[in-house]
Design brief:
359 residues, alpha/beta, five-stranded parallel β-sheet, 12 helices, 12 strands, globular, binds fructose -6-phosphate
């Protein structure tokens, strides 16, 4: 049940420290990333990795894809419904990774099957043991987030992103041409602190206050660059699906190529910092600010975005690889509290289903 929570979504947001501990459990040993199903050498011969996914899972795949590229592995992140037209060449040196919480999304299964038909090796990253994706792929990695009841994916996004970050290290060990990040030890050490960092965010009520202050807005724009780009897209998706308000996410630098025409004093711009380089986000947020838009910075206290922001939602300091996950939790809370004020049916938004089994 929902226990003390008004909605499953809020319960699931609050269960992320536990869910993530389960995701990580036993997978880092003596500074090495290990997956039982993927012994050393599993990925030898792989030259290209293609992620296929939909919706929130696509945003997690974008996150993982950037980390793989940083390890110098050829990577594509493809919306599963566009796989036939948008993927590059596929052969036996390709690994197709289906990222799917339910393991039942028709578009994602279709892309997985198409990849396999072309000779690719396949991997499912999923929450559901025995799901179709897990059964059909050559191998499966379970994200271990526990069952998710709310239609809006929350804890499963966080567990997917962490699973993919770990998978990146595992793949890099087998096939990267460059050595993995120099600061890998530090990255893996700070991962152990992530559940505590999440607790610190869950104790705040800054997102609820922000929701109250911005509830009469016309549109909500979410921007970010680098790893923050996918977080901005995810923030906007979550916001629109449960509030029914107009929300869009953009790569920070793209705002001036069209969307800026929609920016007014009635459209807050929520600028995401993961603790990396935020200059692009800052310059573009300034453009929006000079058109009157309220600017909300989500990020660590030392992000340069705080110099210009009207409101700042703080995240604990961590490795830049994990900062986006913390920022995303603030965005989950923002969406939740906005939807609650608007009295929306948060756990079952209109027109949406938990798993989409039609193409
Ligand atoms: C958004 C949401 C959807 C799913 C998408 C893929 O909150 O839940 O966008 O992420 O339908 O579902 P799975 O991951 O089950 O393949």
């Amino acid at each position: 049940g929902k226990g003390a929570y008004d909605h499953y979504m809020l319960k699931e947001i609050h269960s992320q420290p536990t869910a993530l501990s389960n995701t990580i459990e036993g997978r880092i040993q003596d500074g090495e990333v290990t997956f039982e199903a993927l012994p050393a050498g599993t990925f030898e011969g792989i030259e290209t990795v293609q992620f296929v996914a939909c919706g929130t899972s696509y945003h997690a795949a974008m996150y993982g894809g950037q980390l793989l590229r940083a390890a110098d592995i050829r990577t594509e992140v493809v919306r599963a419904s566009e796989y036939e037209s948008a993927s590059g060449p596929v052969d036996e040196t390709t690994l197709v990774v289906a990222v799917t919480q339910s393991g039942e999304t028709a578009d994602t299964l279709d892309a997985l099957r198409t990849g396999a038909d072309h000779g690719a090796r396949t991997l499912a990253v999923t929450n559901v043991v025995g799901s179709t994706a897990a059964r059909e792929a050559d191998e499966a990695v379970y994200i271990r987030a526990g069952p998710e009841v709310g239609v809006a994916a929350t804890k499963t996004y966080s567990s997917q992103a962490v699973s993919l970050a770990l998978l990146t290290q595992r793949l890099a060990d087998d096939v990267a041409h460059a050595t993995p990040a120099d600061d890998r030890a530090e990255m893996l050490d700070t991962l152990a602190d992530l559940p505590d960092h999440l607790e610190q965010i869950l104790e705040q009520n800054a997102a609820e206050t922000l929701a109250q202050e911005t509830i009469d807005s016309e549109s909500y724009f979410f921007i970010g660059n680098g790893l923050g780009h996918s977080v901005a897209l995810e923030g906007a998706l979550k916001f629109k699906e449960i509030t029914y308000e107009h929300a869009e996410g953009f790569a920070s630098g793209q705002l001036k190529h069209g969307p800026l025409a929609l920016v007014t004093e009635n459209s807050p711009v929520i600028a995401v910092s993961t603790g990396g380089d935020d200059e692009k986000t800052k310059t573009n947020a300034l453009e929006a600010q000079s058109r009157g838009a309220p600017i909300v910075a989500i990020g660590p206290d030392d992000t340069p975005l705080t110099d210009i922001a009207d409101t700042h939602l703080s995240i604990p300091e961590t490795h830049p690889v994990w900062g986006g996950l913390l920022a995303n939790v603030q965005l989950q809370l923002f969406a939740y509290h906005a939807a609650k004020q608007l009295d929306r049916p948060i756990d079952k938004p209109r027109n949406l289903a938990k798993s989409v089994t039609v193409e």
